[in-house]
Each structure stands twice: as structure tokens, then as C-alpha cells.
Amino acid sequence: MDTGTHFAMGIGLFGLAHLDPSVTSHPVTAQAVLLGTVLGSQAPDFDGLFRFKGGAAYIRQHRGLSHSFPMIFVWASLITFILFLTHERASLLSLWMWTLLAVAVHVLIDCFNSYGTQALRPLSRRWIAWDVLNIIDPFILTVHLAGFLLWWLTPIHPGALFAAIYSLIILYTAWRWRIHRSLVRKVAMQAEQAKRISVIPTIRPSLWKLVVEEDGRVRFGEIHRRKIRWTDEIPDTDREHPAALASLKDPDIASFLYFSDYGHVQVQPFGDGYKVRWADVRYYHKKRFPFVAVAYLDHNLDVIRSYIGWSSEQRLEKKINSCTIETP
């Protein structure tokens, strides 16, 4: 989920922590748990520091090891240790337990959107992305804000309040999961030649994006109130092109395909060589691919330059126009 949602959940989990007598009866423990749940709710995303090593390193590492099951315990223990240095009178068990819950909730909730995590590492590097919640979910944010307002304005016990809120979020997520499953089955009945069907949430609860991969083409559509509308399609015929196969050796392309197995490749002549663009079909919007990896190859199929990242079409074109290929 987005940083704001994780932050809201960190505060909400502190409200839930008021069910713990060690928190409500001991101000130092309460202060430490507040810091623990807020930091724990953000900790897995500290892998954002890989941005300083370049786009390929960031995309390969983000939501990878930092979001894995063993790291839940590492993050919780590390944060607890640091906070205990300045809150020696706090309940160590309560601090560790609530920090652990905050980290675990972060990793779990990230599995429900289309980006996913590698939560099963080191057992598996498979990306877990259940396509149930949008990265910014208005319902989850709204109920948290409502909870904060009630916490501030009323005498309702925050532990009971946020227990009710998180029960509601669990029911909401289960409801979204059921809708998603039913929509996938509905699409499968209409797209009998599909190799893969992706029904992807949007910020509008009643609207879902649709991607259907078939032999030789990819079709796009949307589902609004369970009604399917096909909007576009693109050919998928360049996968075996020699330039496409040669581009797989490039670190940027390899990082892109490590993160996403939804890659669509397009090969175009460029100077005396080729431009190979890999794009994630899940994010196709208004005939544009915002998440791409591009490699420029010479006539010998050697990569001259490459780029990976999230970019508007305008920014991508600037990068393309600034790129020149010199042939020997």
C-alpha cells in the first residue's frame, strides 16, 4: 500500500494496543509502543534506500527480502532494541509484540495489491500479488480517519474502537477477494483462448482493469459493476525476435523481468540497430505503459544503453531522444 496508508495503520495499531494492560497502565510503554507501531508499519519500505543505487537495484530489491517472513522478526527485533535503549522502563514483551504485529500487517496488506511482495523468501522468490486491493484504498483510509476522529472526540475505548475497525477491514478485504474471484471466472467464460487473466483493482471500488493474454495478442478492458467492456488490444509477436532475446542479457531488462512476469516486448528499428521495450501490461493506461525497461542494441545485437523505471510517455521520449547509438 502507499506510505500514507501504512502510516495510518501504524497509528491505528497503537489504538488497538490499548487492549494490552501494559500499554494503558504504563505511559513509558505506551510511548514506546506508539513509536514501535509507526516505525514497524514503515520498516519494510526502508528498502527504498536502494534508489540511490539506481533504478535496476531498487526494482530488484523493493518488496523483496525486506518484505519476507523472516525479516518480519528481524525488523521487529531491531526496532524494539533501538527503542528499548531510550525506553528502558517499557514492557519489552509488549513493545516487541506490537511492533511485530505492525511489521506483519505491512507485509500482509502489501500482498493484496497488484505489486505484491516476495513474502515467502527464502523458500521461494515468487511474487505474491492477489490483486484484491488498490495501492490506495479509499475505504481503508476512510475508516482509519473516522477512527481517529472518534478517538479524539468521544470517550470510546480506542482498543475496542480499532478492534471493530480492523474486523471491518478484514470483512471488507474478504468481500473484495470474493468479488475478484467471481470476476476472473466471468472473464474466463468470455475469453476461452486466454493464457492468463488479470483482474486488477482501481481506486474506484466498482471499477476493475482487465488484461487478457492470448497467443499473439494482449487484450485490455474494464469491468464496471460486473459488466465487461473491451477497450484495446496490442499484438504480442516479438518475443522470439533476436533483438528481444539478446536484450535479456542486460541488467535493466533482467531486473524488470525479475520483478514482473507480465512483460510485453516490442522491437523497433533504431538507427543501425534496435530499440527493445519491455512493458508491464498490468499498468497499461490510455495507450501508455508507465512501467518499462528499454534497451538499445547495435546491429551486432549488443546492448549499448538501457533504462528501467516508472515514467510518463513524455519523460520516456526525452530519454529516447537523448540516446544515440554509435555503430563501429
From TrEMBL:
Residues annotated as transmembrane: 69-87, 93-115, 127-153, 159-177
Domain of life: Bacteria
Keywords attached to this entry: Membrane, Transmembrane, Transmembrane helix
Official protein name in the record: Inner membrane protein
Organism: Planifilum fimeticola
